Amino acid sequence: MKLVQIPVGKIGTPYHRPSWRxxxxxxxxxxxxxxxxxxxxxxxxxxxxxHISNAGYMKRLINQGLTCxxxxxxxxxxxxxxxxxxxxxxxxxxxxxxxxxxKVHPSKTYCEHSDTTANYPSWNITKVKQLTDQYFKKxxxxxxxxxxxxxxxxxxxxxxxxxxxxxxxxxxCSSWAEVPIETQAKRWRITVPRMKAIINLFYxxxxxxxxxxxxxxxxxxxxxxxxxxxGEFLFYKKIYDLGELGWKMQFxxxxxxxxxxxxxxxxxxxxxxxxxxxxxFGVNTTKDILIYNRLIHDVHKLxxxxxxxxxxxxxxxxxxxxxxxxxxxxxxxxxxxNLEDVKLLQALIKELSSIDNEPKFPSIxxxxxxx
Length: 371
Hints:
α9 crosses α10. By secondary structure, the protein is mainly α. Residues about 1-5 and about 40-50 have low confidence and may be disordered. It is about 60% helix and about 5% strand. The strands form 2 sheets. It has a two-stranded antiparallel ribbon. Strands 3-4 form a two-stranded antiparallel sheet. The chain is elongated. The longest helix has about 45 residues, at about 285-330.
């Protein structure tokens, strides 16, 4: 039988979460990893189902505090009778007794499983050690008590602590934005090995599809299955649109560069069109039609306004070029010529600064032109 390495067949499907390693530790059957588990026999002891696991599995649970009771007892009558037999017959008699005991009792020990250990997977450590996925292997060996890992232990404690709820959200956003692990480790003051453990166990987006349409569907799917709440979805959506800038603009806008602010302004202007597209799918009644038509009219007005701004910017640029050209050609030898050039410059400045507004009072140029 071919050894299962990682659930490659599940990657990119609704069954694959960023925290698939942590989930597979508790439910290996969901990810088709049951070949890595030891075979368990199921029988009945009275009214309850009873599972027999391998000895190594039971020893690991005992080391974690599981209490077991030995139910194998040889009655005094059987012991007294076997002492009167010859050694060869006594050995056969003991074998016959053990065979009969096994028919009645599934095991020589009985363990009171708690809620924590009742469904604890029985991993086959020999097969687990052959895994090529290093973090999944380290997680299983750490939880089984075979090989303690400080990084895995820190990641699990970090994940389970309710005090780190907000930190977990932002680390997830950074991972979705593909921020380098070294940058995140420096940002949160966590060592690089520990940050790698956190991301690989709970925020592994490396196997997600690269196609934008597929990534959007995966983002919606994570929200539907409860991997993300509504607030996290909004963060992830902005990151989907703008990359890490979509995350930073939420709380650090004033420290962004001019280029980044211009990119955000363009994005916000274009969201009107996106919203119109979204509303188009929900038009069902006459009221919806009127609202949609009004929105489309506003979108057209916004497009016209953008074109007007571009024209005004181009006009301002041309006037600035004219002013610079005239400034270079001013005749410094004649005061009258100088005065004419200054008047021309003032007229250009007036035109430049009063594109849309008529002045309330006459300018100095208007006053001088009065005879």
